[in-house]
Amino acid sequence: MKPAEKITDKLIGAHSLETAEYAALIRARDEVRDTLRGAAEKERRRFYGNTVFTRGLIEISSFCKNDCLYCGIRRSNANAERYRLTEEQILECADNGYELGFRTFVLQGGEDAYFTDERLIPLIGELKRRRPDCAVTLSLGERSYESYKRLREAGADRYLLRHETADEEHYKKLHPDEMSFQNRMRCLKNLKALGYQVGCGFMVGSPFQTPETLAKDLKLIEEFKPEMCGIGPFIPHHETPFAKHPAGTLELTCFLLSVIRIIHPPVLLPATTALGTIDPLGRERGIKCGANVVMPNLSPVSVRKKYALYDNKLCTGEEAAECRRCLERRIRSIGYETVTARGDFKNTNNN
Ligand code: 5AD
Ligand code: FES
What we know:
By secondary structure, the chain is α/β, with parallel strands linked by helices.
């Protein structure tokens, strides 16, 4: 047996590898891609059948106090158009989404000081009061333990905070000095301790990424066991220091989706908008490789283009209803089914 095949067998059997083995697997992926895709598909089916969960994404603010080097809404981008939705607009997006069949709403935004706990708590409370059958997911960046606690008590169910890279040196190359990998991890641990379903994740093909840094990302997922994991290709934004760096590939993203599904079989794994942006059939490919979530946009079309984390972002002109229909059709075309459900993490402990 070739070394890559041996490592593949070990991964499928044990859901775990040494960090160096993850790196070797990534380097030799051409030899084992199909085997891993098959195994990922089997795991996915075991937990979720052929269903795909949908999340309605509401991009509540493009103001951000951070300056991540890869991101189009970084504070140094003076040309970024900034907006923030009112509470009324957010609730309207959610009402519209509910009618369309969404049962999870993701409130995502830059780190905008306007959205204090005092403003978010009544908003989350009102969302949950109107739609007690829905899950509320927050994706609002780094906050204090106390803030995460208050938002959890207000009714938030889940929190997405990508770790971006599990290699400290790499983290420093992607972020300004005032941000740190330690703080990211502290936030993720706090969120878990508070009982959120937590999502970490990273970009594929971010500048300075290597098989070794990716291996650390995979080890982190193996050990932290997030309920959700968001991965998508890095895509350059023309107004950032990484404007000239190449985008991540469909091929590597799909391979990593399969590996993550096998490492942590019940994980909720989106086929991201970024994946659909680098390839017209990217999201479908992602689902076939192990993803089981899609997150179409519910934000008002009037602000869509302003939430530009990267160039050429998909679906900036379509109404929510159009995206919903489009995605349902796409998912059906590859033999899967979207469902109207909260789509919670389920670990039946048989993994
Ligand atoms: N390309 C792809 N993904 C990006 N993100 C931010 N900027 C980019 C980019 N240029 C991702 C980050 C962040 C998430 C909200 O979007 O991983 O956590
Ligand atoms: Fe938005 Fe297809 S998902 S148009």
